[in-house]
From TrEMBL:
This is Ionic transporter y4hA. It comes from the Bacteria. Pfam families: Na_Ca_ex (PF01699). Its main location: membrane. InterPro entries: Alkaline_pH_Ca-Antiporter (IPR052946), NaCa_Exmemb (IPR004837). Keywords: Membrane, Transmembrane, Transmembrane helix. The chain crosses the membrane at residues 12-30, 36-56, 68-89, 104-125, 137-158, 170-188, 220-237, 257-277, 289-314, 320-341, 348-366.
Amino acid sequence: MSTGTGMASLTRQWTTWVPVVAVIALVFAWGRDLPAFAVVVVSLCLAGAVMAAVHHAEVIAHKVGEPFGSLVLAVAVTVIEVALIVTLMADGGSKYSSLARDTVFAAVMITCNGIVGLSLLVGAVRSGVAVFNPEGSGTLLACVATLATLTLVLPTFTTTKPGPEFTGPQLAFAAVASLCVYGLFVAVQTIRHRDYFLPVTQEGEIQDPDEHAEPPTKNAALASLGLLLIALIAVVGNAKAVSPTIERGVESAGLPHAVVGVIIALLVLAPETLAAVRAARRERVQTSINLGFGSAMASIGLTIPAIALATIWLSGPLTMGLDATHMVLLALTVMVGVLTVVPGRATLVQGGVHLAIFAAFVFFAVSP
């Protein structure tokens, strides 16, 4: 297929114009109090942008191969998520003092239990046993556990500053440590031990990343990269646009304010969730795990350094430490995760257990 034909085919697809329409809807909705009809329209645009983001992420993944494709989607979503957090904190002051903590923890629970659990369940239903690489998956989980403990657990126990907060030097250390761990992992994932993060067959052999279809042209891949960024901006921006309506609904229902963060995190992580499930249906569970654990690591490794820089000009407290209930859920997630990844094979039980932990997180967010 020629470059011109590939581009013409790309422009005919709905995944080309839906992100643009979603961004236009975002422009008209930004900063306004939306009526019910407008909320419905923006929500439809949000759903369309999610589907388009998944499509373009898969095009890029096919072009560059694994694990680079999973890395592109995880980092792109996280960068825009960081921008959303900083914007809300700058506008809301002390009202959003715990927003970074709530968002990062919600992302960890959604990715490590929701995405991973659903992917294992889909993979096991399709093949009987979901197969993945324990070396790569174990490395991902170890990094997530370390980063989550350094940034979300330690602030509850430090004594220099009262409350679950870091001092300036402590926050700087956590930020530098997060960047170093994340950078080291990316180097190992993409260069030194890339084969640890490639999908494997039922017999444990590495799958050929390019075995099933001709990769897209360079121009088509670049176009998908641009449209992926547009779609992700639309996802996060439209999620923010409808968040006041969600917040009013949560408050009128008498639910905790943290529920808003959970809902927004679910919307923002929808592209990764759909991409992970589609990979599991193709018996590429390792790709799903890369997306799940990798997104959790990117959320911590990029968000905390960005928040640390933002505190230079942001006023008000920055609550980072988890409460007792969330620390129990985090510890349970890490323990179950270790038991899941060590064998390199998972059945319906492991998928169901991770989803049960995710359900517990959502339930106790609603009813603390």
